[in-house]
Amino acid sequence: MQCPCGSSISFQQCCLLLINQDNNAQSPEQLMRSRYSAYATEAADYIYQTYAQASRALQTIADISAWAKETKWLKLTIHAASDHTKHNNQTAVSDGNKEHNLPTVCFSAYYQHQGEYFLMKETSRFVVEKGQWRYLEGEVSNNEALIAPKRNQACFCDSNKKFKQCCGR
Ligand SMILES: [Zn+2]
Ligand SMILES: [Zn+2]
Fold this sequence. Notes:
Blueprint: H1 15-19, H2 28-40, H3 44-49, H4 53-56, H5 61-70, E1 71-81, E2 104-113, E3 116-129, E4 132-146
Antiparallel strand pairs: 1-2, 2-3, 3-4
The structure holds zinc ion (2 copies).
Pfam families: SEC-C, YchJ_M-like
Organism: Colwellia hornerae
Protein name: SecC motif-containing protein
């Protein structure tokens, strides 16, 4: 199976290595991709573990799992990722104050939830905790319901495929 994150390599050689904790994410973008793939494959434990500590306290594995089960993730597009190498561990530590210095990843994702299609756009912020990249929080700038095309019409995700061969499968 091709990796859900859209990297065009196999799931086994891509995000599954992170989800199985064989490898650690080397950048916020890699962590973000692996969390997307974890949602797509209902790996709720991994999603929970990769939240920053402060955010993890607001989550439960059961809630993450329920949301993942109700949702079919269709396509991820990364728009921008800040250069994380500019952020040393000192600036990347969350201290509860303004976190403008934290590295961000801006992405959009198509998903299906309870039979309806949506496009969401988010800017996520990441911190380093105990030497590991963690997801702190995200600001959703857009989350709109989409009108599904007819089966033979072009897919809404700009793949140049017919809907029935793409997000409508
Ligand atoms: Zn991947
Ligand atoms: Zn599509």
